[in-house]
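Quick log. Single chain, no ligands specified.
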Amino acid sequence: MNMSDPRQGKVTIKSERPWGDIHMVVRNQKCSVDLTHVHPGHRASLHSHAERYELFHFLDDGAYLEIDEKIYRPKVHDEFMIEPGQKHRFWAGEVSFRMLVVCFGQWRVEDQDRHEDDYGREGQKLEI
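-> predicted structure:
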């Protein structure tokens, strides 16, 4: 796998159907996928990964996303590729939101380094 482009040139495709639409986020690739739900007023740790890439695909409005000290306000179906070493976190304002997190590369608990945390877990290892 070419880790300089973990999606191997593939992008999300929107396929419109009479009944709605499908967003084909990842096809025929080795990855791990999480559905993340963030409660109103809560924030994830500022963290980074040494090895894996993460593709964030937002399913709802209402999110805030920080990547290397830059703040974004993603909309539904916006995508961001987080590269190894980039410090990032996400949080919800007054409403909750959901996003798909597609991880490329080896997913390991040890590959998360917490830099800041609102819940007193800074420097602690991730627990599943």
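The radius of gyration is 15 Å.
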